[in-house]
Predict the structure.
Amino acid sequence: MDLTRELLDMAKAGGASLTGVAPVERFDGAPRGHHPAELLPGAKAVLTFGIRILDRVMEWPDLLQGSSMIPEDVRVEALRAVFYRRSGYDIINDRLNQVALSLANHLEDLGYASLFFPATYGGLPEKMGQLPAMLSQRHAAVRAGLGEFGLNNVVVTPRYGPRIRFNSVITTAPLTPSPVLSTKACQGAECHICVDECPAGALSLMPGVTADQVRLDPASRTDWTLCRKSQSTSDCMGRCLQVCPVGRSG
């Protein structure tokens, strides 16, 4: 079997909803220290895969209203801390890491150097602060043809909208590239709901954002200080993903 097809099938069998491959040349222009070939000398390809978030999970602030088991004064906090955090982040990230490990191990068994970074990393010493991602999963997903950058500053995919999380394996294996997205997924200025619905006003558009081109680079900026502050005082966590009309299951 073709190695690329074998790896994509392995990712799907492990739970991936979307899969794609980007050659490292598509990352030219990446910030210093973040290019796949800098992270893994000799790298030829980046295999990226994503696992969708259930649409019902995104509706977490509205769940269990009137419940006799969960008091109303703690309902939203409990849903955010337990249901959304676990179902929308932790469980998906755990699976993403497991799939990445299986793929990387298989590639190294075949003689190809490979690596991946945890889908999210926490527990860092306080002095290290909020480190930037070692590899931008958003850029990797777009360059693997899985979606485009939306106005919400995350990847919008045609099938699942922005309700999906990604991980990637960098490898020296000569994998067959997937085509980049050729038709737009984000509805852009015609929609604008993600920007309008952000209670913190944390999203701002980049200058010269085009409406009709598939965006391979960010179209907006996120003020993460405003975003995190709003998440701690309101039920807005995930709203920029939830309100996007693209890829809804109904």
Remarks:
- The radius of gyration is 19 Å.
- The helical segments are 3-13, 36-39, 55-58, 72-109, 137-143, 193-196, 224-233, 239-242.
